[in-house]
Amino acid sequence: MFSKNLNYKLNLSGQTTIEFMILLSIGLSIILLIYIVGFNQYFVSFDTYSNSKVNTFLTELKESTSILSNLENGSFKKIIIDIPQTVDLTKSYFDNNVIILKFVDGSNIITFLDYPIQGELTNYGKQTIYLTKDGNKILFNTSYFEVIQDTIFNQDSNEIQFSLNNNFNKKLKIYLDVNFESNYLLSSSSLQSLDPFDLNEYSKKELIFKIQKESILENDLNFGTISFIAEFDDKNLTKTFFISLNSN
Asked: How far is 160 from 230, CA to CA, in rounded Å?
């Protein structure tokens, strides 16, 4: 009788243990599922992610794309980010609605956004980024208006060349502000006049300026500035270049 009771108790104890393990496994599975669904970032290196600059950048990017996804086409948002040197920009990229940051130590962070994004990560440090809703994607641009000085001033031809890029989905009105400290005339073979002109959305324009001395003065100063002012929706952005006329 005693043996039968002992066997019964042992069987009951074993059954209870198995049931507890099953319930525990189910509970842990539910917790793990909630964790996976609740977080959209997978951290390969905790030390890398602890970098506050990276954290701030990813948080700002995710929140901004979420806001823009609910706004009308053409809406934009300006954010200021700071990308540290620990990020390997040559291997980091956007892929549809995913941003993949790879680091010099071999680790990486994958972040899922609420809307597809298109662009490139090209610069380290603090920078201004323009996020623009363009149909079924958001454009990631370091600047909606870029001016690149393609050549220095050439004394033989008296010419200097610039490239203007409109990275925005709106037409820009471009104004020129020319200021030289001596008597120089500026003209352009690319423009009929130096009056304001339009730069269409997502377009590029090359400008060649000829700078000639109007008259010879005793104390001529061979330098000046050319400013390009882009205007849209009562907003403007100015790019100014110092021009030395002594270069060859």
From this structure: 20
